[in-house]
Amino acid sequence: MTPIAPHITFFLQQFLPVERGNSINTCESYAYAFKLLFEYASNSLKITPSELHLEQLDVPLIVNFLNNLEKDRGNGPNSRNNRLAAIKSFMHFMEYRVPTALEQIRRILAIPLKNADTPLVRHLTGEEMQAILNAPEPTTRVGIRDRAMLHLCFAGGLRVSELIGLRIDDLNPLPAASILVHGKGRRKRCLPLWKETASALRAWLAVRGTVLVPELFVNARGLPMTRSGFEYILRKHVKNAAQHCPTLLTKRVSPHVLRHTCALTVLQATNDLRKVSLWLGHANMQTTEMYTRADSSIKLETLESVVPPKLRSGRFKATDKLIASLTKGSFMQSKNTSK
Questions:
Q1: Catalytic annotation on 40?
Q2: Known catalytic residue at 260
């Protein structure tokens, strides 16, 4: 039997961040997936997580765990597939460390991903986005910070991890304001800033004060802004904005919705999918293509450029006596006859 604790520790703390060079977000996501798996296995096998062995993580247990994610935790197919991807990555790692478990590992690697629907991306209208940007009070320190965060998140199409990970030295105010974004998969991109966004950032820097952390955005205690902290700020301002823009009450606004809104704004302005991909920092164009399904303007251009086939003209003639008697002409004819 192979104790799993030392292997998963090396996998998460050494292999992923050091040997593979994965980001902190990836390591944390994988760690959370195994936390859920080990808790489920512990309850199922009636042992503590530290006593788990590799041989106990067989196909039936993992499949039941994946089903439990959907049934009891309410996760969707995408979340289920993400947890399975973490498990498979670990099993690939274990192929060379425990060759005796190769057959079991191969069976786990053969577990298929679950097909998921691909809905249209959720996004906001220009009026809704403007209402959210207007919600923070620009006469207070917190309001100035929130306005700068919301403006930058939308204007740059930033992920939450990218926004809260920005440092002061990533901002270049001169000659033309720009910011260096540390994206997913260690991909960096330099984005120019609108004058309004640069102005909001300068206003925040003027009241930020001398805090000890290098992050651009900090909370009320002077510590780096967290993911949950920004999500709370966004929810608060969406609630306030809904008083002036009631359509926001019908929408679920998350930080990623601001990113989707930015993408569609760029797409509608440029009609260039490649520019959208560069702006968002996508690794390939296939990821960016989902925005074309949500943007009707591109489809309208296609509709206008195609000559539709003509329809042969004709007039419907009733063949049934009852239907013929109910037509307007027949009714008028019978009325004149009765006179």
A1: no
A2: no
Q: What residue segments make up the domains of the chain, in order of their start?
A: 5-109, 126-300
Please say if 291 is a catalytic residue: yes
Instruction: Print burial letters for 78-117: b (CB count within 10 Å at least 16), e (below 16).
Output: ebbbbbbebbbbbbebbeeebeebeebbeebeeeeeeeee
Please identify which of the residues 97, 141, 182, 256 carries the catalytic annotation: 256
Strands 188-192 and 171-172: unpaired
Catalytic hit among 123, 145, 260, 282: 282
Q: Is 123 a catalytic residue?
A: no
- The verdict on whether 32 is a catalytic residue reads no
- Sheet of 171-172: strand order equals 171-172, 178-182, 188-192
- What's at 271, amino acid-wise? N
The answer to whether domain 126-300 has CATH 1.10.443.10 is yes
Catalytic residue among 53, 184, 189, 251: 184
Give the integer Cα–Cα distance in Å for 227 and 224.
10
pLDDT, tens digit, 9 for 90 and up, residues 181-201? 988 877 889 999 999 999 999
Residue 149 is which amino acid? M
> pLDDT per residue over 198-211, tens digit each?
999 999 999 998 88
The whole-angstrom separation of Cα 196 and Cα 215 is: 21
Q: Is the dihedral of CA 244, 247, 251, 256 positive or negative?
A: negative
Each residue's pLDDT tens digit, 118-168: 777 889 999 999 999 999 999 999 999 999 999 999 999 999 999 999 999
DSSP string for 192-239? E--HHHHHHHHHHHHHH---SS-BS-B-TTSSBP-HHHHHHHHHHHHH
* Residue 184 is among the residues annotated as catalytic for this protein: yes
Catalytic residue among 145, 159, 237, 260: 159
